[in-house]
Every structure is written in C-alpha cells, then in structure tokens.
From TrEMBL:
Belongs to the PRA-PH family. PANTHER family: HISTIDINE BIOSYNTHESIS BIFUNCTIONAL PROTEIN (PTHR42945), HISTIDINE BIOSYNTHESIS BIFUNCTIONAL PROTEIN HISIE (PTHR42945:SF9). Its EC number is 3.6.1.31. InterPro entries: HisE, PRib-ATP_PPHydrolase-like. Pathway: Amino-acid biosynthesis; L-histidine biosynthesis; L-histidine from 5-phospho-alpha-D-ribose 1-diphosphate: step 2/9. It is found in: Cytoplasm. It comes from Sphingobium cyanobacteriorum. Gene3D superfamilies: MazG-like. One of its GO terms (molecular function) is phosphoribosyl-ATP diphosphatase activity. It catalyses: 1-(5-phospho-beta-D-ribosyl)-ATP + H2O = 1-(5-phospho-beta-D-ribosyl)-5'-AMP + diphosphate + H(+). Its main location: cytoplasm. This is Phosphoribosyl-ATP pyrophosphatase. Keywords: Amino-acid biosynthesis, ATP-binding, Cytoplasm, Histidine biosynthesis, Hydrolase, Nucleotide-binding. The keyword Protein transport does not apply.
Length: 106
C-alpha cells in the first residue's frame, strides 16, 4: 500500500511546478491552499453520499478522489505522507475506546 501512495506522492511533488494548463496538480496548487482544502471537503462529502446510497463503485471512486486531494493538501503543507502512516502505525493495537478513556478530562 505504501508503494502506491509513495509513487503518487512523488508524482504530486513533481507536478506541483508543472504547466497549470497541462497539470491538474499544478492548476489546483496555483489556486491556493484554501481551494485545495475545499476540494478535500467536497470529496469527503461525495464519499459519504456514495456510502449512504450503498453505492460501492461510487464509494471506491470518491475515496480515491478524497485520498488524492488529501495528499495534495499535505504536499502543499510539506507534510510527508509517511508522517500520517507513521501515526497510524503508532496507533496500531490501541483501542479507540481505551485511548479516548485515557485522555485528560477537559
Ligand atoms: N490521481 C489523480 C486524480 N484523481 C482525481 N483527479 C482529478 O481531480 C479532479 C476532480 O474532479 P472534479 O470534477 O471534482 O474537479 P473540477 O471539476 O476540476 O473542480 P471544480 O473546478 O469544479 O472545483 C478531476 O480533474 C480529476 O481528473 C486526479 N488528477 C490526477 N491524479 C494523479 O496525479 C497525476 C498528475 O496529474 P496531472 O497533474 O494532471 O498531470 C496523475 O498522473 C494521477 O496519478
């Protein structure tokens, strides 16, 4: 799984400075972080809509759009995707219920 995401991350980093008329990555990057973040939100909503319609193919396609745009946003912040994967690895085996119960009270 990391290989696919690493390849995409490298492609995104290379394409950020490409000609915006020939590259979606360059075009969206040129529109700024707020626009990239907006696209992440839109793709997340479209993923939810597909899931609620029990549209399996749609959920796969929208999830790919969501992952792609999230990676674009992280690249814009110069956050390596490995940092996200490392955080997930760190959480491996830690129950979400137990983790939440161990949080300090507000
Ligand atoms: N994985 C993707 C990928 N997934 C989705 N998209 C594009 O993301 C866009 C999202 O579609 P929308 O209809 O939501 O977007 P839109 O209509 O352009 O947006 P709005 O103006 O309506 O906000 C479409 O243009 C899709 O083609 C992607 N574009 C590129 N990639 C990868 O990025 C690489 C570099 O792409 P370029 O930078 O275009 O060369 C490609 O080789 C792929 O590997």
């Amino acid at each position: 799984m990391r290989a696919t995401l690493h390849t995409l991350e490298q492609t995104i980093r290379q394409r950020r400075s490409a000609d915006p008329s020939a590259s979606y990555v360059a075009k969206l990057t040129a529109r700024g972080r707020a626009k990239i973040a907006q696209k992440v939100g839109e793709e997340a909503v479209e993923t939810v809509i597909a899931a609620m319609a029990d549209d399996r193919d749609g959920a796969i396609s929208e999830s790919a759009d969501l992952m792609f745009h999230l990676m674009l946003l992280l690249a814009d912040m110069d956050v390596p995707f490995d940092a996200v994967l490392d955080e997930l690895d760190r959480r491996e085996g830690v129950s979400g219920i137990a983790e939440k119960a161990a949080r300090p009270a507000d």
